[in-house]
Each structure stands twice: as structure tokens, then as C-alpha cells.
Design brief:
Number of strands: 9
Order of helices and strands: EHHEEEHEEEHEHEHH
Largest sheet: 7 strands, mixed
Number of helices: 7
Radius of gyration: 17 Å
CATH topology: Rossmann fold
Distance between the termini: 32 Å
Shape: globular
Structural class: alpha/beta
Oligomer: single chain
Strand content: 25-35%
Length: about 200
């Protein structure tokens, strides 16, 4: 299942980062995008009723615990935004070294993951899905850790990248802000430097 995340403020901030922003403007807009995405992705999470020692209803809490996995380095800020929202969440990193060309891919050997992942639901986040390779590697790594409930979250994605993921992992929902053609994504390749500058 694919979910297109929609919000008027998302459109506003996406326009900023697509049009050669300064580092300051990019940092501001990307922070806002990460927070908005975190809120939209978590809005339908299951809640359980809570009661005090006398049995009196006091409110709700999240039913599940979450691990948040950032595709490093581009998913770091989004992972932090999700971690700020979700109580008792833990954050891990899978992906690229700091010297990898993010738009060409490759060099997927970084794994920094917390323990006991199998008892939690996972959210994998990245700035973009171009071919789907980084997400596939992250999913495969989590499956080695016996994680079975995974959501995929990204800002930009190509149709080809989405189709590649759905062909291999049709059971995992994908949340995306903006679907782009490969050509359109190449036009915003300047985001590589901005993402490195902000996330590292």
C-alpha cells in the first residue's frame, strides 16, 4: 500500500527545498518537513486505554513500541523527528558511509542497530527512494533481526523505486510526500550536499 502524505505546509516547504535554497533555508524547511511527516505517519497508530490503580480511566497510550531506523545519513533528521514524537522509541542506522555519492548509491555497509528489535514495530525513513536499493537493504537487515512489522517513510520517491520495493516487499506500507520521475529527481541532485551538511 502506498500513502501519499498531504498537507498544505508540506507543499510549501517542499517548494523551498526544490529551488536551490541556501543552507539556512534548507535546514529550516527540512526540519519542518521532518516534523510534518512524523505527525502524518503516526496519526493512526493504535492506542490503548489506561487506568489508575483504582481502575479509573485516565486516558490513552500507544499500544506498540517502535524502533526507528534511519537510512544514514539522509534519514537522520526524520528519524529524530519521529523519535521526539514516539515515547520509548529507539533509533538505529543502516546505509551509507559519509563518503558515498547518495545519488549513485553503493557502499551500503553501515549497520548500527539497537538490541531486541524483534519485539518492536519498525519505521524506516529516508530522504528519497530512487531505485529502492537502500530501503531493500535496510528491510533485509531488519528481517535478519526477526522484525516483521515495518513501515517505509520517505520524502521523495520515483515510481520505479516504489515498484521495485512493492515487487519484493508488498506487505510493507510506503509513505511518501512527493512522487518524482527519475529525471525530476536528478534535477534536485543538489540536495545531496545540503543533506550531508545538515545531517552529519
Amino acid at each position: 500500500m502506498i500513502y501519499i502524505l498531504e498537507h498544505s505546509l508540506l507543499e510549501h516547504f517542499l517548494t523551498i527545498i526544490k529551488n536551490q535554497p541556501s543552507h539556512t533555508h534548507f535546514k529550516y524547511a527540512w526540519s519542518k518537513i521532518s516534523s510534518l511527516v512524523a505527525m502524518l505517519v503516526t496519526k493512526d497508530l493504535q492506542l490503548s486505554e489506561t487506568f489508575d490503580d483504582s481502575g479509573e480511566f485516565v486516558g490513552y497510550k500507544f499500544t506498540d513500541q517502535f524502533s526507528i531506523v534511519s537510512i544514514f545519513p539522509t534519514g537522520v533528521r526524520m528519524a529524530q523527528a519521529l523519535g521526539d514524537l514516539l515515547p520509548n522509541s529507539i533509533i538505529g542506522y543502516v546505509g551509507h558511509s559519509a563518503t558515498t555519492d547518495l545519488f549513485k548509491g553503493g557502499d551500503e555497509g553501515l549497520y548500527i542497530l539497537p538490541e531486541n528489535l524483534s519485539s518492536r514495530k519498525a519505521i524506516i525513513c529516508d530522504a528519497m527512494i530512487k531505485t529502492g536499493q537502500s530501503m531493500r537493504n535496510a528491510i533485509s537487515r531488519l528481517q535478519i533481526e526477526n522484525v516483521i512489522d515495518i513501515k517505509l517513510v520517505t520524502v521523495f520517491a520515483t515510481t520505479n523505486g516504489i515498484e521495485n520495493l512493492r515487487a519484493e516487499f508488498p506487505e510493507f506500507p510506503i509513505y511518501v510526500c512527493s512522487l518524482e520521475s527519475t529525471e525530476e529527481l536528478e534535477k534536485i541532485s543538489f540536495l545531496e550536499e545540503l543533506l550531508r551538511h545538515y545531517n552529519l
